[in-house]
Structure formats: C-alpha cells, structure tokens
Amino acid sequence: MILVDGQPQDTVPATDRGLLYGDGLFETIRFVGSTAPLWSRHMRRLALGCERLRLPAPDPALLWQETATVTQGMAEAIVRITLTRGTGARGYAMPADPCVTRIVAAFALPALEAAPYRDGLRLHLCETRLAEQPLLAGLKHLNRLEQVLARAEWNDPAMAEGLLCDMHGHAISATAANLFAVVDGVPVTPALERCGVAGVLRAELLEALPRVEVRDLPLAECLRASELFLSSSVRGILPVQAVADKVFAPGPVARAMQAHWRELGFPMEQA
Length: 271
Description:
By secondary structure, the chain is α+β, with helices and mostly antiparallel strands. Helices cover 26% and strands 31% of the residues.
C-alpha cells in the first residue's frame, strides 16, 4: 500500500522536485509486526536531513500513523518514507514556502536466507568512485546514481554486493550497506564527512561496540583486515567472505553484532 500526503495513491505530479532534481530524502525502515526497532534512529536521521536540506520536517507521530496504515496485516514489512520539496516554479531556486510531498509505502520483506549470515557475502570491487560533497555526506538523499552505476558493474549472482571507494582510494561502504573492518583487533568504520550514507544501524553499532574507530580506511588496509562485515537496517549484519580474490572468514566481532541485532528485536534469518 502507498500513501501520498496521507491519501491512497501511487502518483505524484510530473513537476515534483523529487522527480526533477532528486530534491528530497528517504528512509527505508524494517518492521517486525507492528514494531520498528530502529524507528527512533530513522526519525533522528530524517530530521537532520531535513535541517541540512532546509526542508520542513514532518511530524514523526503522523509518519507513525501512516506506517501503521500501510503495514496493516503484514507480519514483516519494509516501509519507505520519501520526502520531496514538492512542486515549484521551474529552476533550481527553492520555493519560498515549500509544500513537502510525503510518500509512505510498504513492501513485503524480501527473502533472506541463512547462508549469507552464516558464511558471508562475496563483494565485487567497484570501479565507480564516490564523489565528495560534504554538504550531502551522510544524508539519505534521493540521488542514488552513483550506487546505480556501481550496481551495474556486475551480474554474477554469486556476488551479493559491491565495495565502493572514494576518489582517494579509501574504502567507504557497500552499495547499500555500511562497512566495518577489524584492524589489529580494533573495529573500524570509514569516516563519512565527505561522502557515503550514515546508516542507522551503523549508528547503533557505534554505541554497541566496546571500542571502535571512525576514520579514513585505505583500501589496502581494509583488505588486510582480519574480518569485514556489512551493516544494513534491512538486512542486519552480514559477514564478508571475499572481496574480489581476497578471502575472509566471519569473525567474532561480526558474530557479536549479529547477536546484538537479534537483541534489538529482529528475527534470526532462516534457511
């Protein structure tokens, strides 16, 4: 089910700035029954994004009501909340008094098999590089063309994800997940002040890990790590089995964070 500004429909005007310019934000939220364990973190990121993009922020209580409507009767669901700056005069200039378009849509949870959580994922090493834009870094804004182009680099079903670097050769993330490495026994996640998306599960793990470094992570150092794993608010914690020809094994930090994911209220994936 899809609501646009609270009404059941699935269209927006052709002049909507989200369509014309990617002028907006989105959140993708996993629901377990009527609960969303990471809801508060999603709302904090959405509010921060609205502040950075100068968008009027919606009332979280209203969003909660609308997610309850679209997920009614679903045992598990993925809810996407999309905000755009709405319509306005032609051109890049922001409307003086924007009327935000609010889209709340629910989708069935995709099949999640147990094997990747147990054995890990193989990653393609992407040639596409993430450009630097500190004004947008960390935000879940609507322009995902870099990720689209990166995902187009492979069609091997054995490759479940791709590893993205910035223009300086620092590892940043997967195409749709954040990255953690364990280097000399210390968990490290890439700094995201210049590019990348600051995931809500990443934020949760930064508080859950007893010690963790947030810093630049050169690709060569990343590939020497004792373990790698991905974090996604939809898929949870996924160990990395290989990046191109470099092989890894699921390690104790990833296993501990998988246990933390389950403690948050997410079910253990079944084969």
